[in-house]
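Lab notebook, bench 4. Still working through the backlog of constructs that have no structural model yet. Next entry is a single chain of 238 residues. Request: give me the structure tokens for it.
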Amino acid sequence: MEKEYRTTLPQLLEDLAAGKKLHNLVEWKRFIKPDNTVFIVVDIQNDVVHPEGNLNWTGTWKIAKEMNLVENVKNIVAACRKKQIPVIWVRQTFLAEGRDLIPGSYFEALVSYIRTAIPDLMFEDTWEIDVVDELKAVMEPQDLHIDKRLWNTFEGTNLQTYLNMMGTKNIICCGTMIDQCVEATLRTGWDRGYLPVLVTDASAGNTEEIVKMTCERLGFFMTALVDSAGLVELINNL
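Model written out:
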């Protein structure tokens, strides 16, 4: 019999004041099943997390290194393999010469401006947009791959089709940048009825403060938070 979740306003306010999260108060982990969950790895690319990448000046690669991001993702992937949880690899990429940018749009102006300083920013078929070698080594043929043109992994891609066909109800997400592409993906997942889960120590941003603030903002209401060790334990016990 499913537990009935009830509270009162005084109790709810007391729990929130004590630092408890809404997702934990309703035990989000009980919804995670191998046949209704996917693991989405967003933009862990050379451009962003390699010290020689085009975006090394953002400092994201340093934050990723400090949190041991790549190793944490590898551990999660290994756990997913054991339970046959699908793994989806996402890359941010653009066509050369602005062929995929809408003429006269702000987005075209923004990307074109950045390319005056970084001419080959996230061009397709380049080393820069490839997933880092350590993670390419753990990919398997059944994994799904998505190249996106916008920050949100849902928009303009076949992610929604994949999720529909697999009967997905929960999306576990990590990657870079936590306050941009990862957050956009999680927010859209929430709006479309999925339980979104953010892996806190497998998601990097420009600074530690950005990572912390994003986790606090998303974790207040719409996103369950878990670190990689906790997630691996959860998956292993499914």
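Notes after review: The two ends are 18 Å apart (CA to CA). The mean pLDDT is 93. Flag for follow-up if needed.
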